[in-house]
């Protein structure tokens, strides 16, 4: 939207994070609003942890329609909301807030945003052996949804204590027991031969360290599905290696676009123009 297109009726959405400058959500959402001819504008807000309460009061006070929430606010933001939907509550993190007539409602679209690209490729997690690398916020949403869908999950994390605590919480909420191991070469070579799906949910491989990967080609094979949720670069080293090994690959941009599309639908009540959002995100990442 150009500044001369802003009217008295323009509704405001945005993203809060610290940092937030790198976010491609503004480009993606503004492209979607434009495509559907909606009088909406999406902007980034740099909100430091000390200002989170004021930011959420501001959302109410300024009648901002919707917000995405990114690092480091996904957990802390929950205390400032009027309600949190059951999925977000179980995951313990909110990445979308909808202002419904002054009531702030929290949702988590990261989990469903991860699942949808798998389903698009006709990959059903039920009964699959899934190896997840990382035990941070994104891993938690992914483990939750895959566990709910009946996958058998092993989580490998650099800091092993963190994974144990995390697994107990997810297992309690989904009722499915998960395994946890320290992320090291020996454990990788044990779990990889029986893995159907490998997910990198760490930040390893992210630009500028785009030559890094936690899993080398010798541990990858045809028929396996490899998902890297890192979206910058567009094709990570892990995905390149997986392609060479003949595995099916899914890049982080898919989860990014899907969580955005599901956020868009919460705010507008309309079906998101997924392809337009994907195109805008790809273009922004290549730039
Ligand atoms: P986070 O909560 O900070 O967790 C980071 C995870 O990466 C932790 O498990 C950490 O292990 C691990 N890690 C970091 N450096 C490592 C290294 N050198 N070796 C091994 N493990 C390492 O972050 P997050 O929110 O989960 O995000 C993780 C990544 O996913 C980021 O790159 C983020 O951009 C991406 N992401 C993508 C999407 C998407 O839509 N595509 C959505 C969310 C996040 P320790 O516990 O040992 O520190």
What would your notes on this structure say?
The chain has 287 residues and is of the alpha/beta class. It folds into 2 domains: 3-108 and 254-286, Leucine Dehydrogenase, chain A, domain 1 (Rossmann fold, 3-Layer(aba) Sandwich), CATH 3.40.50.10860; 111-250, Rossmann fold, CATH 3.40.50.720. It is 38% helix and 20% strand. The protein has 10 helices and 12 strands. It has a 6-stranded mixed beta sheet with strand order 2-1-3-5-6-4, sandwiched between helices. A 6-stranded parallel beta sheet has the order 9-8-7-10-11-12, sandwiched between helices. Strand 11 (225-228), helix 8 (237-244) and strand 12 form a beta-alpha-beta unit. Helix 4 (110-120) packs across helix 9 (252-268). The protein is globular and about 60 Å long. It starts with 10 loop residues before the first strand and ends with a helix. Residues 71, 110, 134-139, 157-159, 162, 183, 201-204, 206, 229-231, 252, 255-256, 259 line the site of NADP nicotinamide-adenine-dinucleotide phosphate.
Main attributes of the structure:
287 residues, 2 domains, Rossmann fold, binds NADP nicotinamide-adenine-dinucleotide phosphate, 12 strands, six-stranded parallel β-sheet, alpha/beta, single chain, six-stranded mixed β-sheet
Can you summarize the main beta sheet? 6 strands, mixed
Could you give the distance between the termini?
A: 20 Å
Structural class computed from helices and strand pairing: alpha/beta
CATH superfamily of the largest domain: NAD(P)-binding Rossmann-like Domain
Residues in helix, % = 25-40%
- The overall pLDDT average reads 94
Individual helix count: 10
Total domain modules: 2
């Amino acid at each position: 939207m150009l500044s001369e297109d802003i009217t008295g009726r323009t509704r405001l959405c945005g993203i809060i994070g610290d940092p937030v400058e790198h976010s491609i959500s503004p480009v993606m959402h503004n492209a979607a609003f434009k495509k559907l001819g909606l009088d909406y504008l999406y902007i980034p807000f740099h909100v430091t942890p000390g200002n989170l309460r004021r930011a959420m009061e501001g959302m109410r006070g300024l009648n901002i329609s919707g917000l995405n929430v990114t690092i480091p606010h996904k957990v802390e933001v929950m205390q400032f909301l009027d309600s949190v939907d059951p999925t977000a509550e179980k995951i313990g993190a909110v990445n979308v807030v909808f202002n419904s007539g002054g009531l702030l409602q929290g949702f988590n679209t990261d989990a469903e945003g991860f699942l949808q690209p798998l389903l698009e490729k006709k990959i059903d997690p039920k009964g699959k052996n899934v190896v997840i690398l990382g035990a941070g916020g994104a891993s938690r949403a992914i483990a939750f949804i895959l566990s709910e869908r009946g996958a058998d999950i092993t989580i490998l994390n650099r800091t092993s204590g963190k994974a144990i605590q995390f697994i107990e919480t997810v297992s309690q909420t989904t009722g499915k027991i998960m395994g946890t191991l320290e992320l090291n070469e020996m454990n990788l070579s044990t779990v990889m031969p029986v893995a159907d799906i490998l997910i990198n949910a760490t930040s390893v491989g992210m630009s500028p360290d785009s030559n890094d990967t936690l899993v080398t080609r010798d541990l990858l094979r045809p028929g396996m599905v490899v998902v890297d949720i890192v979206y910058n670069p567009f094709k990570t080293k892990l995905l390149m290696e997986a392609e060479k090994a003949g595995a099916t690959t899914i890049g982080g941009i898919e989860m990014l676009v899907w969580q955005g599309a599901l956020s868009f639908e919460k705010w507008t009540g309309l079906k998101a123009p997924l392809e337009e959002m994907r195109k805008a995100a790809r273009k922004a990442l290549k730039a």
